[in-house]
Design brief:
The chain is an alpha+beta fold and 235 residues long. Helix content is 16%, strand content 35%.
């Protein structure tokens, strides 16, 4: 892979991974070459390797999201980065909590045997907030509005439930009615990351396709959450 393609791929990877949030991404001339994948696009050889890596955690693989470099069908094996969501450790009627692995497949697995070079780059935590009316549905789609998402920092169940409810309400931003765009949260977008930074909470929303979305900044005031900033990002 050339230097330019690696650099472009890194832009999407920064949004795909559980890396640190930065300032809103500015538009670039080209989007990274690659395709987002879900569990259904993972080959048998890849899934076997992901399950092997998950064994040390004592949990089975639950969901897999990934990004394959280069052009081609989602199921065509090539250099791929995986978000591996392990089976929930906490399950109730309102949310699931668990651990996740960020796995790199540097060498495509083109046979039914384990491939050298697989590694766990990092680990993290995830949450999935459940709509009681859809609790029995198996949600595996990356762009499902109820998808599981990485969380960074400590959050109580009540805070997470309030956060998701606020996002889904299309909450107004501080610039509402002043002619600036966006002036409110697009609650139809899936949450793809939540991070606590000092007294604020940063929420990443992503459109289907992964090319753009919103950064939403929340603050805890008077016992509740309020939107203090809404920004667009484009990769």
């Amino acid at each position: 892979m050339g230097i330019k393609q690696r650099a472009l791929s890194g832009i999407v990877y920064a949004l795909f991974t559980i890396a640190s949030l930065a300032t809103p991404a500015r538009a670039v001339c080209q989007q990274a070459l690659g395709v987002f994948i879900d569990t259904k696009d993972v080959t048998r050889a890849e899934m076997a390797e992901l399950r092997r890596l998950a064994q040390s955690t004592g949990r089975n693989v639950w969901l897999v999201y990934g990004f394959r470099d280069g052009l081609g069908a989602p199921s065509e094996v090539r250099h791929t980065r995986f978000q591996v969501y392990l089976e929930p450790e906490v399950e109730n009627t309102t949310l699931h909590r668990g651990r996740m692995l960020l796995v790199d497949e540097p060498t495509p697995a083109r046979s039914e045997r384990a491939t050298d070079g697989w590694r766990v780059d990092s680990t993290g935590k995830y949450v999935q907030v459940i709509d009681p009316q859809r609790h029995q549905q198996r949600l595996i789609g990356r762009w499902d509005i109820q998808r599981a998402f990485p969380v960074h920092g400590e959050f109580s169940d009540n805070t997470l439930l309030e956060l998701v409810a606020l996002i889904r309400s299309n909450a107004r931003g501080p610039n509402f009615g002043k002619g600036e765009v966006p002036d409110r949260v697009d609650g139809s977008l899936p949450i793809t990351q939540v991070r606590r930074t000092n007294s604020r909470i940063e929420v990443v929303l992503t459109t289907a396709g992964g090319g753009q979305g919103e950064f939403v900044t929340l603050e805890e005031r008077d016992g509740g959450l309020v939107v203090v900033k809404v920004r667009l990002w484009i990769a």
